[in-house]
UniProtKB/TrEMBL annotation, chain B:
Name this polypeptide is given: ER lumen protein-retaining receptor
Highest taxon, organism lineage: Eukaryota
PROSITE patterns recorded: ER_LUMEN_RECEPTOR_2 (PS00952)
UniProt keyword list: Endoplasmic reticulum, ER-Golgi transport, Membrane, Protein transport, Receptor, Transmembrane, Transmembrane helix, Transport
Biological process terms in GO annotation: protein retention in ER lumen; protein transport; vesicle-mediated transport
Amino acid sequence: APTAHVKDEL
Amino acid sequence: MNLFRLFGDMSHLASILILVHKIQTTRSCRGISFKTQALYVTVFVSRYLDLFYDWVSLYNFFMKVFFISSSCYILYLMKMKFRPTNDPSIDTFRIEYLLGPCAILALIFHYKFTVTEVLWSFSIFLESVAILPQLFMLQRTGEAETITTHYLAALGAYRAFYIPNWIYRYWTEDIVDPIAVTSGIVQTALYLDFFYVYFTKVLQGQKFELPA
C-alpha cells in the first residue's frame, strides 16, 4: 500500500 | 471517518473532561504530572499548526482548537489556580530525555523536509512518550485516586482505538501512515502495564495500588 501523511487524523 | 477513530477521538475528549472535572471538584491536581501536561501542550501546538493553512473539516477544526485550548487551560489550573496542590518534588522524570530523541527522530523520519512536516513528526513521536512522566510518578507513589485512573484509561484507549482504524483504512482506502502507526503502537504498548492493574483492580472496585 502507498504510504502517506494522513492529514485528517487528530 | 470510521467508528474506531470516532471512538478514539471521543475517548480522548472524555479523558480531558475527566481530568478537568477531577481538578475542579477535588480542587486539587494531586497525582497529576505537570510535565506530562506540558508535553501535551507542546504536542498539540506543534502538530496543529496546519489550522492556519489547511482546512480539513469542521469536526477536525473544532477538535484541534479544543485540544490546544483545553491543554493550556489545564496548565493554568496546575500552575495558577491550584498551584499549592501541585508537588513538583515527585514529578522528577527528565523530559529532556524525551524531547531530544524525538527531535532527532523527527529530523530523520518525516514525509517532507519542511518546518511544519518535521514539527508534525516531532509531535507524533513526542505524543507516544508524553505519558511517561505521569506513569513514572504513579510508579513512584504506588497509588492513584480512582478518578485519575479513569483519566489514564480513557487516554490510553484513545490511541488503542486508532490501531483498528489504521487496519480498516489499509483495507478500505489502501493507505498507510507508517510514522503515525509505529508511534501509535508504541504509545498504546506503554499503557499495557497500567491497563492490567486498571482492569484487575479498579474495575473490580478496588483502589489502584501497585504491589510494593
